[in-house]
Fold these 2 entries.
Entry 1:
Amino acid sequence: MKVEVITLFPGFFEGVFGQSILRRAQEAGALEPCIHDLREFTTDRHGQADDYRYGGGPGMLLRPEPLFGAFERILSKAESRPLVIYPTPQGEPFTQAAADELARQRHLVFLCGHYKGVDQRVVERWVDREYSIGDYVLTGGETAVAVMVDAAVRLIPGVLGDADSARSDSFRSGGLDGPHYTRPDVTRGLRVPGVLVSGHHRNIERWRRATARYLTRRRRPDLIDNKSG
Ligand code: SAM
């Protein structure tokens, strides 16, 4: 999957793509990131990427011209139209189902907003999906892009060492995952639930389903309601 990101802060992505699964995905040939520095598409001699908002009020906006320039460059080199995503608090909630959809794409382009956001004409001209990663406001789209790319890339077949493990993660079958334990069976006087060291696989499975259901009901009843609705 080719992932292109338009950002005022290209340095942010060095760590994001340089570690863990996103790095392994590149080594395996499953992910090809390409970070575009928005500043390089500015046309004035000060390299100004932002400007005041029409109508007044505090807060700057990313100017349309550099963004149009970035999109025109990216699209002119693309074999087919990529899916373009703008992270924004005004978008629809980014869910596991949305991550699944992104994981099936061959080419994604992310537009990172900053300040008050971006000129709306850019959104109308280029953006296919607007996603929010939660009901709070971040400083810029970079952190949201890191979240979305991570959630999608780990679903690309072959990227995770153990795909079965991901299948039992939270949201994959609707509800939350339950608690897990590893060795030793006693630490600081704290004991692992007996059933997990019983060797009785059916009981272990039953316990896992029950604890996961209990957690889901207590913390995210909306997930159960959504399922039955
Ligand atoms: N004026 C915008 C609003 O209130 O909806 C907030 C702008 S925010 C300070 C700057 C940028 O951060 C946004 O353009 C967007 O790209 C990103 N951003 C902030 N919060 C986000 C969220 N919850 N989900 C996704 N992106 C977010």
Entry 2:
Amino acid sequence: MPKKSLGQNFIFDSNVTDKIARAAGALTDKIVIEIGPGPGGLTRALLDTKASKVIAIERDSRAIEALKGLERAANGRLHIYEGDALETDLLALTEGKPFTIVANLPYNIATPLLMNWLKLIHAQGASIEKMVLMFQKEVAQRIVAPVNTKAYGRLSIMSQWLTQPHIAFDLAPTVFYPPPKVTSSVVVFSIKNQLYLNPDFATVEHVTALAFQQRRKMLRSSLKNYCNIMSNYDIPLSARAENLTVEEFLTLADNIK
Ligand code: SAH
């Protein structure tokens, strides 16, 4: 019985779960972390890859019980942890080893989870090797949106700063049980090789939140305390938040700091 409060929309079709696992590329000898295994459809697909270990974090104790058999059958390759993914220290689970995250995320906490992991990429550099995450299509489109578009915003900037995100494919509501109201998209985040880590994470969050809170206003008004910095770096005060590139936001944040 799926619980709406836990964002439970399950996938049982192994063609679909295999396709999600394949979107991660070769997983040979990799550690994979899955958030919210639920009844274990995607977990089985991940165990069918050559990953050395699958670590799954689940909040629903009913799912933990249901996955015990699978854990035994996996001969030490599957580790299930009961807990809240928002509070879990992923580095502690992998003992500091690099890992890939693959998950059909609970939509009610998908954005805060993504923000946590982006923060971890910023702090730790190489720990997260790749992320393959399912979102509502509308959220996925915001993540990959280019500058000068309506969907471009805080999520685009934070994601594109540290990763190269692309939408691998969409999934219709009918592949889920129960079907959600919206179409879903699987987003692959490749972590950038050269990370520009100068601005601190909180400052980039701050300046993008401020600029996009009033996204129709000119920057001279939404970022009025930072007009001097913008002028120094040739950022036009008459532009709106959606006209500033990721690099311009980073320059701004770096100098505000
Ligand atoms: N991966 C499964 C289930 C996806 S539904 C499938 O594809 O079929 C989302 C899952 O995330 C559910 O199992 C839900 O119980 C779990 N979940 C919800 N909130 C969570 C949290 N805070 N921490 C860990 N898991 C959570």
